C-alpha cells in the first residue's frame, strides 16, 4: 500500500465519519430545541421535559456498549452502517408518535442506534492514521458534532424550525441519504482486518479491558467519561432553555448557541492537535481549566455580548474535552479491544449523560435557576480532571519502565 493510497484511505474515512458526526450533533441539539414544542403538545412540566431529554441519551448507553463490542467482532463498517440506519428510522418515528410513552420509546431506540455508531466513528478515525496522528484524526472527525449542532441552531432560528416535528424529519432523512455513501466509499479499518487474520486474538471481550495492565486506566477513564459527559449533555440539552432562564429571547439564545457550537468546532480540532503535540498533562490542564472558566463566565454574564463570549468560551472546551476523551480511548487500547474499550467507556459516560439533563430539570423545577444548574457542574469537572491526570501518570510510568504490550503508542508525549 503506497503512502498516497494510505493518505486517501485516511481522508475518505475521516471525511465520512465527520459527516456522520455532523448528523449526531444535529440530533443531540434537536431534543433541546424541540423540547418546548414537545412540552406544549404533550403537556409536560419541567421534570417530564427532563425525561424526554434523557430518553435519547439513555439509549446511547446500551448502544455504545454493544456497538463497540460488535465492531471488534464483526467489523467497524458493517456495525456503523446498521447503527446509522436504526438511528435514522427512529428519529423519523419521533415526529409521528401520539403518546408520551411512545415518544420516550422511540427516542430511546434512536439513541441506541446513535450510541452504537460513536465507538465505530472513533475507532475508524483512529485506525485510519498512524499512531502519532490519532488524536488529531479523532478531533477532526468529532468536530462534526458541533458543526451539526450549529447548523441546527440556525435552522431553529428560521421559520422552518418553529415546528418541532420538522427538526426530527430533517434529522431522520439526512442519515438515510448518507448510508449509500458509506456502503460505496467507506473503507474497513486495515488494523481490524489484520487483527482478524491473527486467529489467536479473541476480540470484543469485556474482561480484556481489565487484563494486561488495563484495569486501572479503564476504571479511571470510566469515572472521567461519566462526569465529563454529564456536564456536556447537561449543557447541550438545556442550553436553549438556560439562556431563556437568564432572561434572553429565543432568538438571542439560538444565536448564543450558534457561537457555542462554532467555537466548539475550533476547540475540538485544536485540542486534538495539541494532544498529539504537547505533553498530555498540559492538554488536560488546559481543557478542564477552560471548562471551569467558561462555566464561571456563563454564571457571571450580565449582558448579551458577555453571554455570547461566555457561550463561545464554554463551547470550545466542553465539546473539545469530549473529543479529547474519545481520542484517549482510541490511543490507550490495543486494536483487538479498541472499539470495545471506547464503547464501554462511552456507555459509562452515557449514564452520566442521562443523569445530567434530568438533574438539571429537577433543579430548574425546584427554583434553583440557570445559575444553580451551571454551578452544579463545577465539581464534576474537577473530579474528571483528577482522573485524567492519573491516567496520564500511569501511562508515563509504563513508558518509562518500557513494560507491557498495551502501553500508549508513541503519539506525542504522555
Write a structural description.
The protein has helices spanning 3-42, 46-74, 76-94, 100-127, 134-142, 144-156, 164-185, 190-197, 215-245, 250-277, 280-300, 304-332, 338-365, 369-376, 378-401. The chain has 414 residues and is an all-alpha fold. It has one domain (3-187, 202-401): Growth Hormone, Chain: A, CATH 1.20.1250. α5 (134-142) packs antiparallel against α10, α9 runs antiparallel to α10 and α11 packs antiparallel against α12. The chain starts with a helix and ends in a 13-residue tail after the last helix. Mean pLDDT is 81; it is low at 403-413. GO terms for molecular function: carboxylic acid transmembrane transporter activity. InterPro entries: MFS (IPR011701), MFS_dom (IPR020846), MFS_trans_sf (IPR036259), Sugar_transporter_CS (IPR005829). Residues 13-396 form the Major facilitator superfamily (MFS) profile domain.
